[in-house]
Amino acid sequence: MKFLLVLLCALLGASCYTFEYDPPGGEVPDMNEPDESEPDMPVEEMLPIITITLPRDNAQVTSPVRLVAVAADVDQNDISSGIVWLQNETPFKTGSDVTHEFPVGEHTVSARATDSKGRTGESFITFEVIGN
């Protein structure tokens, strides 16, 4: 998980910070022990991770709207160039950084990416266009 965070920070050009956590009672969980609360998912079933960075979810924006996302597969490969943007399951743009004209009103769009093994991940945002 730490590697993925560093990868996303690098892709976004963002600064990443590390911090130490001292849990109540001073007992630090052994991170090498399996977490019994969540079932293990085989790596071959893990979907690509897509993170939409612009616009922010529930933002009010003007049109045209700039849409930006990053995508990585389970092997930490950048697959952002293959992002497909959809509204109501209808594709309207391809790429990690696109601009699109939307009419005034609320819109929900998704960013979808498929890795080299055919696994598809998706992320959604909702925003409101308040004018041009």
Can you give a write-up of this model?
Residues 1-20 form the signal peptide. Keywords: Signal. InterPro entries: Ig-like_fold (IPR013783). The protein is mainly beta and 132 residues long. It contains one helix and eight strands. It has one helix spanning 2-12; strands at 49-54, 59-62, 65-72, 84-87, 90-94, 97-100, 105-114, 120-131. A five-stranded mixed β-sheet has the order 2-8-7-4-5, with no helix packed on it. Strands 1-3-6 form a three-stranded antiparallel β-sheet, with helices on one face.
Based on Cα principal axes, name the global outline. Answer: globular
Number of strands: 8
Number of helices: 1
Q: Please state the second-level CATH architecture of the domain at 45-132.
A: Sandwich
Poorly predicted ranges (pLDDT <50, ≥5 residues)? 1-10
Element string (H = helix, E = strand):
HEEEEEEEE
Termini, distance in Å? 40 Å
Q: Given the helix and strand composition, which structural class is it?
A: mainly beta
Strand order of the largest sheet: 2-8-7-4-5
**What is the CA-based Rg, rounded?**
18 Å
Mean pLDDT: 81
Beta-strand fraction estimate: 35-45%
Q: Summarize the biggest pleated sheet.
A: 5 strands, mixed
Helix share, percent: under 10%
Keywords: Signal
InterPro entries: Ig-like_fold (IPR013783)
Signal peptide: 1-20
